[in-house]
Amino acid sequence: MVRVMLRFSREIADRPITSQVILGQGAPVNILSAHMNQRGGEMLVEIPTENAERVIRAFREHGVTVDVRRLIEKDDDRCVDCGACISICPMDAFSFDDGYTVALDAERCNGITCGLCVDACPHRAIRLLG
Amino acid sequence: MKDLVESSGIQVAFDEVDVVTTGTFGAMCSSGAVVNLGHADPPIKIQRAWMNDVPIPHPGAAVDLYIGATIMSETRPFEYGGAHVIEDLIRGEEVELRAMSNGTDCYPRTRLETTLTKDDLNQFYLLNFRNGYQRYSCATNGRDETIYTYMGKLLPRFRNATYSGAGELNPLMNDPDFETIGVGTRIFLGGGQGYVMGEGTQHNPRSGFGTIMVRGDAKRMSPEFIRGASFTGYGTTLYVGLGIPIPILNEGIVEKVAIRDSEILTDVVDYGITRRDRGSVRTVSYGELKSGRIEIDDREVKVSPLSSLKKAHAICETLKEWIEDGAFYLTQHVERLPADTAYRPMRETEGPVFVESVLHEAVTCTEDEGIEDVARRLVELSANHVVVVDAEDRLRGIVTSWDITKSVANGGARLSDIIVRNVYTASLNEPLETASRSMAQHNISALPVVDSDGRVLGIVTSEDISRLLGGAGHG
């Protein structure tokens, strides 16, 4: 699965773009969260890896800004590997590896739509992106 | 060592092992540093001081200061505090010092501003009153809202849990009868070497909550093992790396250091309860805690540590290397830690005041009543809140006189349209302090008081609280 953030500007906010892409590409797009109104908005979606390239291209052809950056950043210099982030995360994006190092699986993260971990980190090592 | 005892038995382990190293790295709030600044010219007897805007208590003579880990910056409270000043100094960074004084004949100076690094200080010693708790409670939250505590962020309705401490790696846990750890024991402290000064404050060995007081030269410490931290909504604290070698003097000690996480038990405590005695939700072992999942009320709850087990292991390893390289020598303590200290709560001359003592009857209505009837009742009884109940007196919502005024101004509405359904409540045996805090946090002026079945027993308002506090002479 590839997780991307779709940004819809005011000009295209009233068009049924997501349905058109899903139908046109015949690919399932899982909407994880959406914040939309007439002024535009953003939507966090998951696309099967094998369809990702053409689905992303299709969204872009419709004028949607597709952001495939990571949604969260962990500063490893600040992180002391305590694990405060692990139990707070509803998506299980954080876990311990065998040596009790905190590992981040960025693919699982819901990013700015969640953000529960950010103020739970005693070392301020987690930052939301974009 | 633990594996060796398990696989080969106590005798073999006793023959083969001389020293077991233990370690922990976690938040230890009762920590701080003593610094001596040297004298200024003209000299000052400091009465108030700040480092990077963090107020620094002045415990002694003219230029001795104590940087308390939990004291927060006046310009960046909750984010930067004494703990961060200590970390910055250890990193070799410059720290801004401001100081004020009345001025005396011998110390005429009244104001001082300068920048300092650790190299400019005569003494820079970590001096921690309470470190290395043998074990600690696991924290969770049964309330309906997220709470921010010194045990981290706790989601509502038992959705997560946190714990502290290193379990089987903890120093005191491996020497629970204080046979080897005592006054003068040389230890790993913050990446340097230090000493145990004695029992820590709140030392509670009878209940398995021993603590130690330690000191060490902070100039030789490393930011890898001393870190300032910020717990949102609580404040700042210091993460301290602490390691203690335990000499294997006899087979009895072998048996004790063989302790496993599965044998170390602690309570799961509901930090949503705002009383001193929070009781216990259940008992768990550190083995269960380290598995990442515990059961609360038949539900699986994610649990994670606030201490770093990775750093605890690193401390054990570093200490082992030091000992092997001859860079660290074990000491014999000059006095054992007390094993029978009593741990008492605070003596207070006045007991807490409970919601029960200011509770009064609530003006109530049912959902099907007309707004005019409800408005008339509020006027007749000169009240500001009407609690909406069902036929069994169960809480359905709340309406304020302001809600009614607003609906009239907007051309009228039905009562059911203006009822606030998400109501914060209080219980009879809740301290008034927490009810008052709840009102302030949610910016509301009254809380219906309900029993465990949601039946309305009355109401407590901010006016009741002001009146009580005013009457008691605290106003």
Characterise the protein shown here.
The complex is a heterodimer of chains A (130) and B (475). Chain A has a 4-stranded antiparallel sheet. A two-stranded antiparallel sheet of chain A has the order 5-8. Chain A has a two-stranded antiparallel ribbon with strand order 6-7. Chain A has helices spanning 17-25, 49-61, 84-88; strands at residues 2-8, 30-37, 40-47, 65-67, 72-74, 94-96, 102-104, 126-128. The mean pLDDT of chain A is 89. Chain A has 2 domains: 2-67, ACT domain (Alpha-Beta Plaits), CATH 3.30.70.260; 72-128, Alpha-Beta Plaits. With 130 residues, chain A is α+β, with helices and mostly antiparallel strands. Chain B is α+β, with helices and mostly antiparallel strands. Chain B folds into 2 domains: 1-347, no CATH class; 355-471, CBS-domain (Roll). In chain B, strands 1, 2, 5, 8, 14, 15, 16, 17 and 18 form a 9-stranded antiparallel sheet that branches. Chain B has a 4-stranded antiparallel sheet with strand order 4-3-6-7. Chain B starts with a helix and ends with a helix. The mean pLDDT of chain B is 94. Chains A and B meet through helix 3 of A and strand 1, strand 12, strand 17, strand 22 and helix 6 of B.
Distance between the termini of chain B: 60 Å
Q: Could you tell me which chain pair has the largest interface and how many residues each side has?
A: A-B, 19 and 31 residues
**What is the subunit organization of this protein?**
heterodimer
The portion of residues forming beta strands of chain A comes to 25-35%
Number of continuous helical runs of chain B: 11
Globally, the shape of chain A reads elongated
CATH fold-level topology of the largest domain in chain A: Alpha-Beta Plaits
Largest sheet of chain B: 9 strands, antiparallel
Low-confidence parts of chain B lasting 5 or more residues at pLDDT below 50?
A: none
Distance, first to last CA of chain A: 20 Å
Please bin the fraction of helical residues of chain B. 10-25%
What would CATH call the architecture of the largest domain in chain A? Answer: 2-Layer Sandwich
CATH C-level label of the largest domain in chain A: Alpha Beta
Strand portion of chain B: 25-35%
Radius of gyration of chain A: 17 Å
Helix-and-strand structural type of chain A = alpha+beta
Task: Compute the average pLDDT of chain B.
Answer: 94
Q: Structural class, from secondary structure content of chain B? A: alpha+beta
What's the number of structural domains of chain B? 2
Low-confidence stretches of chain A: none
